[in-house]
Amino acid sequence: MTLRSTLLGIARNEDLNFLLTNRIPRRFATRFVGWLSKVEQPLVRDLSMWAWRLFSDLDLSDARKTRFESLHDCFIRELKPGARPIDPDRSLVVSPCDAIVGAFGSIEGTRLFQVKGFPYCLEDLLGSAAAADRYRDGVFVTLRLTASMYHRFHAPHDGRVEEVTYISGDTWNVNPIALKRIENLFCCNERAAIRMRLDDTDEAVTLVAVAAILVASIRLPFLGADLDLRQGGARTIPCDTPFQRGDEMGWFQHGSTIVMLAPRGCGAHAAIFEGKSVKVGQPLLQRRLDGAPSTL
Question: Among 70, 95, 148, 154, which one carries the catalytic annotation?
Answer without folding.
Answer: 154
